[in-house]
Predict the structure.
Amino acid sequence: MTNDTAPATGNLDAAVQAAFGDNATYDGKNEHYVLDHHKLVQAPFGPVLVSEGTAQDAAHASAGLISAIYLKPEGSSYSVVKRYPEAIETGSFGEVGSWKIRDDLLDLPVIEAIGGGTWQGYSCQYTDLVELTADGPKTVARFQSAYSNKGAVTDDGTDISGRIADVAPGKSFTVNFTGSRSFDATYKLVNGKYVLQGGEDKQLDAC
């Protein structure tokens, strides 16, 4: 199994056309988003078009988003079954930091999205894990994955970041944190959600 699921066999252009027509945009409550960086993912229940949405003329506090549109194959094309335009909201200045599709965590595909920002010299980053289930996207974990106060202090400050490293499919994963302080944080799957094992020594300073 790999960390990044290959796109589904199918026609990505046809999937985008079915989902958005010639206008790949979405109007949220306060923002207008342009959607691109599409991936067509094959889940056991059918194809899902996952897209990144960037808010236009966004404020600092505005998040980007990840959209998930469930499709049904119809010949060489698709029809839309269900739309989840805000499956994930994260980031700042209207942009998501980075994202990918993982197939090594659970039986179903999982979107891993990383987003953050800097406020008054403090930088924070969060990782969202959202499972693509037959009933819609389901958040299975959200954790702080980076912290820095180097823009707010005059001494060396603190700068720590982490990434998912060791995965036991369907059971747990471990985040390796390195930088000013190095440690491992393990998250175990409990009742469909990943739960941190340990106390404050396994967490970053809050933002």
In short: The chain is about 5% helix and 60% strand. The longest strand covers residues 77-90. Helices lie at 12-20. Confidence is low (pLDDT under 50) at residues 1-9.
